Amino acid sequence: MRTDTGQLFRLEDYRPSDYLIPQIHLTFRLARDTTTVVADLTVERRAGTEACAPLVLDGDGLKLKRIELDGYGNPAHEATSGKLVLTNLPEARSFRLLIETELDPDRNKALMGLYRSNGVYCTQCEPEGFRRITYFLDRPDILSVYHVRIEAAKAEAPLLLSNGNPVAGGELGDGWHFAEWHDPHPKPSYLFALVAGDLGCLRDSFTTMSGRTVELAIHVEHGKEKLAAYAMDALKRSMKWDEDAFGREYDLDVFNIVAVSDFNMGAMENKGLNIFNDKYVLADEATATDTDFANIEAIIAHEYFHNWTGNRITCRDWFQLCLKEGLTVFRDHEFSADQRSRGVKRIAEVRTLRALQFPEDQGPLAHPVRPRRYREINNFYTATVYEKGSEVVRMLRTILGAETFRSGMELYFERHDGQACTIEDFLKVFEDASGRDLSQFGLWYNQSGTPNLTIKASYEAGTLTLDIEQSVPPTPSESRKRAMHIPLAFGLIGSDGKETGFTAAEGATVENGVIHVRKRSHKLRFHGVPERPVLSLNRGFSAPVTLAIEQRPEDLAFLVGHDSDPFGRWQAFNTLLTDALIAGYRLLLGGKEANYQKDIAKLAGRIATDATLEPAYRALALTLPSEADIARDIGRDIDPDAVLAARSTLSAFIAAANREPFGKLYEELEDRGPFRPDAASAGRRALRNVVLGYLARLEGGADIAERHYRTATNMTDLIAGLGTLAHEHAGSPRTDAALADFAARHATMPLAMDKWFQIQSTTPGTKALETVRALMRHPAFHIDNPNRVRALLGTFSTGNQTGFHRADGTAYAFFADALLEIDGGNPQLSARLATAFRSWRSLEPARQEKARQALVSIAGANSVSVDLRDIVERSLA
Ligand code: 0A1
Ligand code: ZN
What we know:
By secondary structure, the protein is an alpha+beta fold. It has 27 helices and 32 strands. Among the domains are: 1-198, Immunoglobulin-like; 452-549, Immunoglobulin-like, CATH 2.60.40.1840; 746-877, Peptidase M1, alanyl aminopeptidase, C-terminal domain (Zincin-like fold, Alpha Horseshoe), CATH 1.25.50.10. It is globular and about 85 Å long.
């Protein structure tokens, strides 16, 4: 593990490499502790490079066993574990270089490079894992054709997979065998993959739009093949959708997916061989919740879509990560919107963006969608690169219109297939397709921070005036900001609930229901507006901004009932709830009781029982802003205990006012037929479970929650029952009995046990720390397994505001120690978990100080990885 402070990489320092590696032939001889890797590289000096230029290959912790220049013998070289420098190279433009390295997959706990998960050999090479396998030009602009030979003991690894198509295989004697794979598409090293092990398999096939048959396979632990059926279905739907929506066809004879249980992220798009965290593959009603099903669908699609946006067209360098990630997230969002309910999907996306990206953009870890600096690229797989990156692509479509956007995408695929590109290349295709200048729009990639729009509206004699001011707050190393191009979708709603028109607009461009805010301030006048309209702004969340506008509660309530935009309706109610919660919070802080207006409870009751609304939408609307959401909107001096109290009282208040209709709804929504994972069925379960949460606040609530748990016939309901019981009635004998029952029933199912850990770590209150400490000693807790660590420590730090931010600071100290322990094996994981501290400056002063001390203690520890140090130091800066 590297524990220095790390080199600073800068975008402006990008240079093409002196050498290319058009071909690589890799031979693996797999064994747990000594795997040998022979890399046979065809190296080409780039035109213009002098013959004396050294060849500098990347390595990370490698042991060099042999090096030969074909026909020239042993070359002049200097090898360290981190670099291999070759000098006095042949005059010839092209030569072959043979490198043999030795690896120990069993000892690889960082889960980068070649490692073993549950006895299965697998690899993770993005972003810089290939250099842990062999010395190489490990950068995404080096594209090579790979030929891979894998040799292994047949008993240990009957299955041998790599990228591309299988081309040979056979016996080697002594119980060993081999397979060879050839990938005809030149690719960067981060897309290399190998899997070898003893796995079960679910097979299917897909016929592409040009009539080619692709063999599909999902490899999972023996006995779990049936649990891959939903993922397989999602894969086939993804393949079809990419043909229909983007004209993209798959380009190999086979497509393999492998599920492993130890994985740092969600999944990886290796060419023709996607490797997945098994959490995003395995599902049936007994083991997975509806959220799991939706995530599986989205992530299967995401990785598949990377085949074109990421693999065929890749990134020139890691600063351009959003080129593939923002675009691919946009594509998976569109896919899910088409498969499910578009309106509901959009609301869920915005909730995620606000929960994960806004705090990043508003805190010490803020960075542009395309960063210009990094010390550790692993720390830039962020919500800003992924989620905000997707929002930027969405805005591009809003600005250009769907048709021009589509022709820009066509041009992108046509012009850049087989290349390693930049954001400039991406924007240029849209400029060419539309004839527009997108330089101001490009600021979305280069300027960090969430823009704020302050809007004042007035109406007089047929004219509606909007005074619009935009500002982008200062963020680390960017104090001055330029005005951005913000596409603000809007509607003007008349007293009859219908859209009212206007005859002319001046002061800003208004096109197709979108106001184009491009200056710091606009005075926008709509003429010919027949009456004072109610404003629906940022419809569909057309721009990732915060909006400050005074709207009367009665106008918001009107929007809840009348906005034709589902997001707008949801937003209006959410604003009412947030305003009420913040008012309640302030009262509680002042030593008073939180009191709430009857209207809000009535409105909640009306939404709950409005049969014209989709159940999934009603469920989202009735879900109160989380404690973290409320804290974010309060912004500073946060006291998490008062936030929890405000939220619990509002929940109880709404429940008490709607006891009867909620009770009826709860009965009506009971699922009596066979389980179906589709969006409509999931929506009904979601609504019923939200209603359960309210009913559980009332007298007899524990009985309902317990009955819910006992009678559940699927994991969604089981978790809803257990979670409600555990969170509302922590420590009661019936809760303990239910928890014990769950553990006994699911002891052999790690993914279900993760949920068991998570429910306990998110039980509100100071006692959670004790629980989490005890669970770290539980025999089922494994510090090397990222899913388990995230289920216990990740959810504790991000999903338990009162437990993690307990006033005495002991949870911070505990967490800092845990991070250091994790850091010893898996720096990527510790660094990611450490981001839980990022909003420490918005806490009240006493907690702030304790959180700061915890961060300082990590920074001062003996051996801290570059990854963790980077997060901690930026958080403290
Ligand atoms: N490209 C993957 C994300 C990913 C990144 C790094 C990984 O290992 C450390 C694994 C996956 C995606 O966007 O799905
Ligand atoms: Zn991705």
